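Q: Here's a chain of 200 amino acids. Please give me its 3D structure as tokens.
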Amino acid sequence: MGDELTLEAVLTAVDRLLELSPREVSSAGELWSKLDNILDGLLGAAKFDAARHGRLAELVASLKAAAAQFLQSLLNMRRGGPLRDDWTRFAERDFIKFKDEVLALREFLVGEADFLKFACLRARLRDLGRIDPEKLFEELHEERAISERTWVLLMAQPNAWQKALKNREVSGELARISSWLLDLQEARRERRCLARRTAR
């Protein structure tokens, strides 16, 4: 998937940090930098749902604060000097606190997996030129945003729609239509959730 925003990419970056031991703190800085960039994209993608975006923003802000404290301790440790052993202990302590925040974020990501996959797909639809059209249609099909009949027709004549997508106007129209379909799918989900709550 390259640099496309997906929930899988976020979880991969999160898990790489969680797999590090306190003795591997020196490797965390680069991994955090990558996750930090991905989280900014995820926050943007989730803006259309105020409640979930708010909770995600809180978790990310808390994580960034813990990361800043840890990175400062890591910098002090790398400077060496007579207090190096003390700074190493501080860095390991702050790394554990940092990982606690990463774990809290992961729990949210897993708990809201369906919503976040949907949000990432919506975000990628903004720029069809940067994504794999076949992958896009696969995800739309999985989300039931396009019918089985439409899916069969698309897969039966892949060359036709691949050529059409090279036309900027066609790509733009497809992006708008796909967004509408996804909006409709989200509305259906919300109605189902409401029906389940009222049935209790």
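Q: Can you summarize the key feature?
A: The mean pLDDT is 81.
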